[in-house]
């Protein structure tokens, strides 16, 4: 590494813990007590969204609204939250697709009429994609044919719908309602470490997640009254990968053995909202890995190839 680069790198490493400490400001007095908080969780029929719904019900939030496409799963989550909740919590389940304008407008109308608005919107919904880009074409070597290239376009369309268009429609639908109906509105986007640390086999997933991360980061500048938090977790336990829009399978270590625990991620999300933290890496040390990637990309690329068990094809 060139020596000025190394100096910047070492300085960044030394200063990282100080920045992390300073950014973790004490709870703002403007944060709503949970008993007054109306929380909308999009993508709550399983995984982190579902665990977040349980946590908010246990905290005694004023309202917990869960959204997902599978009606049977949403009914289960509502029943679970009703079992956990305190006497003053109202739980609402809505079946819908967050990339469908009609579904989101219907959800907004329901929340306006039942609660008069919302205070917190959590976007946890997302879909995975697991194949190296060229493998999606189905062509083993040489030029991809027309059908193969079209297959890639179709897969990217499905990934964009779940990871970019959905967050976009949710933001356009609910940002004005949050601003007009809440004394301290907040939005939390459950994004991914893949958005800032590129990995093989994740080109489609990472680029579609990165698009929504940048969308929300820019929105947070356009809407300073809303506290935005973006949580970037590494691999989490569960069956997120079963939703792969390219039909790919997992190459790395079993997420259920090595992944972050759902409860830990959900609690970290709630803390991020309470402390109004902007960008949260999980585990926290991954913030350092992001800095390393900026100054020494080949180091992270080697690590990523090993983690995803990926050997580049020899052309
Ligand atoms: N699991 C990981 O290793 C990992 C790591 C880093 C980041 N993340 C991110 O964490 C988030 C949650 O993942 P998870 O592990 O909890 O996976 P999960 O169990 O598959 O949860 C995803 C949720 O999103 C919902 N969803 C997907 N598309 C939707 C749509 N179009 N409209 C409405 N809801 C939709 C699904 O419900 P329906 O199918 O019922 O709609 C499901 O409830 C994702 O955004 C993912 O990118 C996951």
Automatic annotation (TrEMBL):
Keyword presence, Oxidoreductase: yes
Record keyword Plastid present:
no
Q: Which GO terms describe its molecular function?
A: oxidoreductase activity
Q: Which PROSITE patterns match?
A: ADH_SHORT
Cross-referenced Pfam families, in alphabetical order?
A: adh_short
| SUPFAM superfamilies recorded | NAD(P)-binding Rossmann-fold domains (SSF51735)
Q: Kindly list the residue ranges recorded as spanning the membrane.
A: none
By what name is this protein known? Dehydrogenase/reductase SDR family member 7B
Q: What is the lineage of its organism?
A: Eukaryota, Fungi, Dikarya, Basidiomycota, Agaricomycotina
